[in-house]
Automatic annotation (TrEMBL):
<dbReference type="Pfam" id="PF01926">
    <property type="entry name" value="MMR_HSR1"/>
</dbReference>
<dbReference type="GO" id="GO:0003924">
    <property type="term" value="F:GTPase activity"/>
</dbReference>
<keyword id="KW-0342">GTP-binding</keyword>
<dbReference type="InterPro" id="IPR027417">
    <property type="entry name" value="P-loop_NTPase"/>
</dbReference>
<dbReference type="GO" id="GO:0005525">
    <property type="term" value="F:GTP binding"/>
</dbReference>
<keyword id="KW-0963">Cytoplasm</keyword>
<keyword id="KW-0378">Hydrolase</keyword>
<feature type="region of interest" description="Disordered">
    <location>
        <begin position="1"/>
        <end position="25"/>
    </location>
</feature>
<dbReference type="InterPro" id="IPR006073">
    <property type="entry name" value="GTP-bd"/>
</dbReference>
<dbReference type="InterPro" id="IPR023179">
    <property type="entry name" value="GTP-bd_ortho_bundle_sf"/>
</dbReference>
<feature type="compositionally biased region" description="Acidic residues">
    <location>
        <begin position="256"/>
        <end position="272"/>
    </location>
</feature>
<feature type="region of interest" description="Disordered">
    <location>
        <begin position="256"/>
        <end position="282"/>
    </location>
</feature>
<keyword id="KW-0547">Nucleotide-binding</keyword>
<dbReference type="InterPro" id="IPR043358">
    <property type="entry name" value="GNL1-like"/>
</dbReference>
<protein>
    <recommendedName>
        <fullName>Large subunit GTPase 1 homolog</fullName>
    </recommendedName>
</protein>
<feature type="domain" description="CP-type G">
    <location>
        <begin position="167"/>
        <end position="414"/>
    </location>
</feature>
<dbReference type="GO" id="GO:0005829">
    <property type="term" value="C:cytosol"/>
</dbReference>
Length: 590
């Protein structure tokens, strides 16, 4: 064998000698550039390190983290930039009541700064290049103002749309529409409502009308809908309740019934065509004449009512009517026909397009805007997807000859939120693209009671340990472990697949299978949304395997586990002085 290479060891010795000096115990006081070392790097007398009086001018990231933790008096609970070491058993991502109160005060103080971008003024003399440049400048100014608000106040905003082309689509929809409808989710209407959009609509034209369409109203009870109707009536906002899912099912049922009736009428006509007498034909002629006379009377009355309404509008301005007349909203869920009639009657002023009422539809992604259009058209006209951002450009669709729908792409408006998890569980951010599943799962478990989760999914969650709050919510680890093992979502090493389980639970929450409805301001949430009582366990006599108990339990160590370990330990010998006789097994005293 050849000679062993010791270059690595020699290099190490060289580095040590270069730093601390070699031979005779003499310390080297010069570095490579012949300058003196820092005084703390040499022992020039008293060992100041024993008194923790070393001069610290530079630290590595890890050293700085340890120092911060030491100063804070905590064990690895300090923050370093955007890195935070937390206890996995705590409610990660949830705000306390005190933190929510502080956030609410900040939101209320700066709510006037949350605006949408305005289109700069233009006229026939403005060239397309100048208009585009002005739009870019205004848009940049708007983005800088929101970024400054976030930086100075430390608030969290929704990830609002940062593509100028999307806002250009909104500007065109507002300018072309007579009625601008915001479609919101019935479970949390105020999160999806943009007050500044209503102001912008009135800035464009006083003749335009704002309307809020509360979609997915089938998730709410009659009492909950009436509560929301009273709230919006109090603040003077017109709303209607609608359910695209119910409307689509009703349209399919009506179509089937109409087909059956048409077939029956055709068969009756075939049977009666040969046996119709002349006297019956004369009676039918008289009925047709009577119907025509009634139609003329109805048209004449409607014409007189329109003239009277125009005179009232000229005497009283629309602004005065909106200011002094109380808005009364109904809690009824409208059908497709009733909603179309409401579209036709809501706007009485001059139209953007003559003799055609243009309805602009605006809303967040995944609030059911495309589904609403499809149910109104009674056939699929707009592509529908549960992924936010499906519609990329505005489109116009004639609902009837006098009603034109103008669909705007789904836009996330800037608004205040408490956490990013709040946006995930409300469908604003796509679930499949989330990076951290723990905060949104903790938020879901804080909203949905323990017994509702157990009844929904058919498993038992571990109870709180001794010394913990017995009314606390289950942690994300407990919920995901139980769901993963119950569904068989396991990883390669035999542990529950928590990220996969989290996606399924969050999608159930977004789709309404785990239903939670927010109450209006100044209304008690516990009275607004009540929960069903606990059902009996489905398999109360089922024997739970030890592996499932360990998987659901997680890494928690209870006092019962400590007792088992202690009492199962056996002594290895008799506690007397002596020895065991060889071959006899008897204790022999010495």
């Amino acid at each position: 064998m050849g000679k062993k290479n010791k270059s690595g060891q020699d290099l190490g010795r060289s580095l040590i000698k270069d730093r601390f000096g070699g031979g005779g115990g003499r310390a080297k006081k010069f570095v490579g550039d012949k300058s003196m070392l820092h005084t703390t790097e040499i022992q020039d007398g008293y060992d100041w390190g024993r008194l923790n009086l070393q001069s610290v001018t530079e630290e590595s990231s890890f050293q700085e983290f340890l120092s911060t933790a030491e100063l804070a008096g905590t064990e690895f609970q300090a923050e370093k930039l955007n890195i935070k070491f937390v206890n996995p058993k705590s409610n990660v991502g949830l705000l306390t009541d005190a933190e929510k109160a502080v956030a609410n005060s900040v939101h209320e103080k700066h709510k006037d700064l949350i605006k949408i971008p305005r289109r700069p003024p233009w006229n026939s003399q403005t060239t397309p290049e100048e208009l585009k440049q002005n739009e870019k400048d205004k848009f940049l100014e708007w983005r800088r103002s929101l970024a400054q608000l976030q930086e100075e106040q430390g608030v969290i905003l929704t990830p609002f749309e940062k593509n100028l082309e999307f806002w250009r689509q909104l500007w065109r929809v507002v300018e072309r529409s007579d009625v601008v409808i915001q479609i919101v989710d019935a479970r949390n209407p105020l999160l999806f409502r943009c007050e500044d959009l209503e102001k912008y609509v009135k800035e464009v034209s006083k003749e335009k009308i704002n309307l809020i369409l509360i979609n997915k109203a089938d998730f709410l009870t009659e009492h909950q809908r009436q509560t929301w109707a009273n709230y919006f009536s109090k603040i003077g906002i017109n709303i209607v309740f609608f359910s695209a899912l119910l409307a689509s099912s009703e349209c399919e049922t009506i179509t089937e019934e109409n087909d059956v009736e048409n077939q029956a009428e055709e068969s009756e006509d075939l049977l009666d065509s040969e046996g119709t007498s002349k006297s019956e034909e004369s009676t039918l002629d008289e009925l047709r004449i009577s119907v025509k006379k009634l139609e003329h009377l109805v048209e004449d009355s409607a014409h007189k009512l329109d003239i009277l309404n125009d005179k009232i509008q000229t005497i009283l301005k629309t602004e005065d009517l909106e200011e002094f007349l109380n808005v009364t909203n109904s809690s009824k869920v409208l059908t497709c026909d009733e909603l179309i009639q409401h579209f036709r009657s809501i706007h009485k002023g001059p139209k953007v397009t003559e003799n055609v009422t243009t309805i602009g539809l605006v809303g967040y992604p995944n609030v059911g805007k495309s589904s609403t259009i499809n149910s109104l058209m009674s056939e699929k006209k707009v592509s529908v997807s549960s992924t936010p951002g499906k519609t990329k450009h505005f489109q116009t669709l004639y609902l009837e000859k006098d009603i034109l729908l103008c669909d705007c792409p789904g836009l996330v408006m800037p608004s205040f939120v408490y956490t990013k998890a709040e946006m995930i569980i409300n469908g604003i951010l796509p679930i499949d693209q989330m990076r951290d599943h723990v905060p949104p799962i903790n938020l879901v478990s804080s909203l949905i009671p323990r017994h509702v989760l157990e009844d929904k999914y058919g498993f038992m969650l571990p109870l709180p340990m001794e010394g913990e709050d017995q009314e606390r919510c289950p942690t994300a680890e407990e919920l995901l472990n139980a769901y993963g093992y119950n569904r068989g979502y396991m990883t390669a090493n035999g542990q529950p697949d928590n990220p996969r389980a989290a996606r399924y639970i969050l999608k159930d929450f977004v789709n309404g299978k785990l239903l939670y409805s927010h109450a209006p301001p100044e209304i008690d949430q516990n009275e607004f949304h009540t929960w069903p009582e606990r059902r009996k366990p489905i398999n109360s006599s089922r024997i739970v395997p030890p592996r499932e108990i360990r998987a659901v339990k997680g890494s928690r160590i209870s006092t019962e586990d400590i007792d088992k370990v202690f009492f199962r330990s056996q002594s290895q010998g008799v506690h007397v002085k002596g020895r065991i006789g060889i071959g006899t097994g008897r204790l022999v005293n010495v």
